[in-house]
Every structure is written in structure tokens, then in C-alpha cells.
TrEMBL record:
Gene Ontology molecular-function annotations: metalloendopeptidase activity
CDD domains xrefs: M23_peptidase
Entry-linked SUPFAM superfamilies: Duplicated hybrid motif
Lineage, uppermost ranks: Bacteria, Pseudomonadati, Deferribacterota, Deferribacteres, Deferribacterales
The protein's name in its UniProt record: Peptidase M23
Chain ranges of the M23ase beta-sheet core domain: 88-185
Length: 226
């Protein structure tokens, strides 16, 4: 059985990727927020404060950024995204303070961990490979993490083990405090999607076979089918 359908098996142990209280704010990059962020381009502290103030004003303590959101208005300033017009978000962002632990949702092995340098890139990251029962193996990626807390490559993690902590501004690619969580299939790995957090519009027809939505995995850990 392929991801995410095997998650319907009640015997599969799925753990929440974060342990945060209260309901999250759903962040949508509307015109006014985009304008404010663009005015602070290059000022990572100002950008982070903008997100923090936006979240606090809503009464929430954390927030979620959407899978498949078109972020051209923000990403067009980054050459690595603009060159191929890769503007569609392939992960789900969980925005929480630096130092927030992120946990393995499933048993897995650390396939790769390290640091991707460059403004607008991942900074600290970890990639887990999951092979659950007879399900088709796939990968989950966690970007913008604290380098000093990254797991060793080859380490076996159980569902609920800490992967790493959310990184601070000096090590997360210059973004606000958050982790980018992305699912990558074997086909997606072969096509280089470990380091493509966004795709071009031309890739949308086949994106389900490359980087399906992380939402079923994230919510299964909180709302497990009985």
C-alpha cells in the first residue's frame, strides 16, 4: 500500500510531529502581508518579528503554512526559485519558536542530515526514510532545523523520538522560525526533490507521485483513526 493510505491501518504507530498547545493559525500570504514582508527583504529579524506579531495578534501560539500555496510574490526574489519559476509550496510549514522539538511521526532511518547554505535555502535539515510493513518506502524531510541538534545519518528513530529542534535565524536560511515538512517518494528522490521545496506549474500534473501532501501524516498523529 502506498502513502498515505497505509496510515488508515490502526496498527501503524503515528506520533505528532510537534507538541504544541492550542489551535494553530492558518497563514495565508495575502496582499498586505506580502507587501510588509517585501519591504523587509533581507532583514531576517524583521521578517521573523512580522510573523511572530501576526501569530500573537490572532491569539495563537503557533501557525501552519499551506501545502501547494503559490508563493511567487515572495519567492521571485530568490534566484534558485525564480530561474525555473518554482513557486508552488511542496511542504507544510509549522511556525513555532526556535528550539521547538520536532518528532519523528513514524519509525524511520535518518537517510541524510546536514546543512544547505545560502539565503532562502534549508539551512539545517534531516531526511528520514520510512519503510513501514509492506508499504512502499518514502521519505519525510524537515528543513530549517538547528544544526547542533541534527540526528546522525544512519540513526534509527522510533515514532516519537526527537528528530531535531527548529533552528534560529543564523542557521535556517534566513526565514522566520519554522520547519518545512515535505514528503518525497522514491520517484521524487530520483528527480532531485530532496532539495526542491517548491515546484513549477509544469510539474503539477505529476506532483502527487513525487511529493504528495504531508497533511495526512501530520494529522494522523493527532486524529488517529480508531
Amino acid at each position: 500500500m502506498i502513502y498515505p493510505y497505509f496510515l488508515l491501518n490502526k496498527h501503524v504507530n503515528v506520533h505528532p510531529v510537534v507538541r504544541l498547545s492550542g489551535d494553530p493559525l492558518m497563514i495565508i500570504l495575502d496582499e498586505s502581508m506580502v507587501k510588509e514582508l517585501l519591504e523587509m527583504s533581507g532583514d531576517s529579524e524583521g521578517i521573523n518579528d512580522c510573523f511572530d506579531n501576526f501569530i500573537k495578534a490572532s491569539g495563537s501560539s503557533w501557525a501552519v503554512g499551506m501545502y501547494m500555496e503559490n508563493r511567487e510574490s515572495i519567492l521571485s526574489q530568490y534566484q534558485q526559485m525564480a530561474v525555473d519559476r518554482r513557486y508552488y509550496h511542496l511542504g507544510i510549514d509549522i511556525c513555532a519558536p526556535a528550539g521547538t522539538p520536532v518528532y519523528a511521526p513514524l519509525d524511520g532511518v535518518v537517510y541524510e542530515s546536514g546543512y544547505e547554505k545560502g539565503e532562502g535555502n534549508y539551512g539545517g535539515y534531516a531526511i528520514l526514510r520510512h519503510a513501514i510493513g509492506t508499504s512502499e518506502p518514502f521519505y519525510s524531510m524537515y528543513g530549517h532545523m538547528s544544526v547542533k541538534t541534527l540526528p546522525a545519518e544512519g540513526a534509527a528513530l522510533k515514532a516519537g523520538d526527537m528528530i531535531a529542534e527548529i533552528g534560529d535565524l543564523h542557521e535556517n536560511g534566513g526565514w522566520n522560525h519554522h520547519t518545512h515538512i515535505q514528503i518525497i517518494t522514491e520517484k521524487g528522490r530520483e528527480q532531485g526533490y530532496f532539495f526542491k521545496g517548491y515546484c513549477a506549474e509544469s510539474a503539477l500534473p505529476e506532483i502527487e507521485s513525487l511529493c504528495p501532501s504531508p497533511l495526512p501524516l501530520i494529522t494522523a498523529g493527532i486524529f488517529k483513526v480508531n
